Amino acid sequence: MESYETNSREQIAELQALTAPFAVSLRRRVAMWAIRWAIGFGLIALAVQQWPSATWLWWAGAAVAGLSLVSMLAMHVILLRRTAGLQEKLEGLDRMVEEAENETRQEQ
């Protein structure tokens, strides 16, 4: 049982180490998104200046930018929920092992 307990705690620690950089990663992704779309809208401005009838590019660019931001944030939330659920399951297994160890100790 001791090896399982150690392995379970190592898995919990590893999972926590994986989830810790998510906040920093999200900030970096949003910053990169903003830079990417600043460049994109700059190119749209150049295109609209060159071809004045292409004003629809603003709306198309805004739609694509909005969808990409929403999808990025949704994937972040899904990833956080899944890792939180996995962490809860691992902690639940850890508690079950501790309870089983306590019961065997009491029986002896």
TrEMBL record:
Keywords linked to the UniProt accession: Membrane, Transmembrane, Transmembrane helix
Membrane-spanning intervals of the chain: 33-51, 57-80
Keyword Transmembrane: yes
Keyword Transmembrane included in the entry's annotation: yes
Protein name: Holin-X, holin superfamily III
